[in-house]
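User: Structure tokens for this complex, please. No commentary.
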Amino acid sequence: DAGVIQSPRHEVTEMGQEVTLRCKPISGHNSLFWYRQTMMRGLELLIYFNNNVPIDDSGMPEDRFSAKMPNASFSTLKIQPSEPRDSAVYFCASSRDVGGKAEAFFGQGTRLTVV
Amino acid sequence: GEDVEQSLFLSVREGDSSVINCTYTDSSSTYLYWYKQEPGAGLQLLTYIFSNMDMKQDQRLTVLLNKKDKHLSLRIADTQTGDSAIYFCAGIFSGGYNKLIFGAGTRLAVHP
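Assistant:
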């Protein structure tokens, strides 16, 4: 398996534009997570899905953020409209529960810069 | 709550031991994890410990778990420059569904 695949790797956009980040989890994994990493706040869990269903989106900062998982092999995180303070590295991770142990595998991340 | 706390920075001399500490508030996690993030990369699982264990050793890595104090530590023996990275502790706490909660990460700097 190629691992968790995120695209794009880098995104530079102007304030007010819509940004869509994409993630392909590892086949067979039933949980998917979106994290945001900044120097100020560290690693924050934004939302996670289990079996394609959003379980907890309490980490989503505002209504400008939305995430979908239409099927087991694809998820998107959308920011509309984007703002400079959204600049961060966004990680997608997936995992599969095996006897209470669930190793999360991370993608390489998308570095978002909003100018 | 699900707070996981770590100190933000640690600087050690090459060849010395590094000890990275983590505390958590919820003791329900079956496993506790240490992840490593190298520059420009995502996080990778480094090691983990089952909650019924006190210690786990894996080559240069030693994980100690004090359940009473809700304290987890990672010791790296003979620290090398290649160990410079950010280290995260994590656990799956009350609520299940594999919700992995991370600490803020400890940035380890190894100098000659």
